[in-house]
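Input structure tokens:
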């Protein structure tokens, strides 16, 4: 039986209510973050940042909304902001040697550390994650929420603030794109292209 979260206690900044919120949704938020940002330490940090932001902005929570989808929206935004920051940092690292030839560029690790995907060969997991990374942000999010988090179309629509038919279209396009990219990788032995 699902635990009821007392929104009024959260809005009153009750530590017990927030502890209950973390106990109820902590693993789900971590797994969601890990699906978007596949480095365990980053996913853990982003999960914590999600709950800190929830604590600080609980007064913005609309009555009648679902706390789960509100938390997921915060986590998704945190993850994609992190990815954008990482890409900017990576671009800067590539340009740095042009301006200062004495320093080595900063290396951003691209290792795959997602324990949630169990495949016989870790290389297959890398290929799958690389294919997921090429999807547009909305397709990537919808796919993770449906396939990894097990959310239904209505929950995804609420989390992403789109219609149910948009979720269906996003999932259809995501699956088609993944099939094409994986087919290209396994049968044509070519690299992924957007």
């Amino acid at each position: 039986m699902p635990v009821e979260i007392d929104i009024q206690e959260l809005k009153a900044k009750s530590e017990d209510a927030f502890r209950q919120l973390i106990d109820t949704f902590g693993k789900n938020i971590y797994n969601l973050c890990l699906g978007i940002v596949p480095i365990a330490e980053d996913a853990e940090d982003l999960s914590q940042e999600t709950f800190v932001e929830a604590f600080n902005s609980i007064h913005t929570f609309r009555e009648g909304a679902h706390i789960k989808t509100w938390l997921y929206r915060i986590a998704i935004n945190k993850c994609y902001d992190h990815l954008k920051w990482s890409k900017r940092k990576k671009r800067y690292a590539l340009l740095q040697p042009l301006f200062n030839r004495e320093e080595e560029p900063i290396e951003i690790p691209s290792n795959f550390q997602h324990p949630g995907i169990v495949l016989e060969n870790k290389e297959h997991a890398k290929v799958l994650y690389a294919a997921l990374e090429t999807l547009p942000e909305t397709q990537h999010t919808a796919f993770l929420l449906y396939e990894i988090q097990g959310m239904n179309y209505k929950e995804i629509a609420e989390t992403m603030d789109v219609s149910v038919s948009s979720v269906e279209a996003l999932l259809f396009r995501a699956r088609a794109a993944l099939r094409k990219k994986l087919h290209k990788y396994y049968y044509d032995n070519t690299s992924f292209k957007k």
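The first helix runs from residue 7 to 11. The chain has two domains: 1-110, 117-194.
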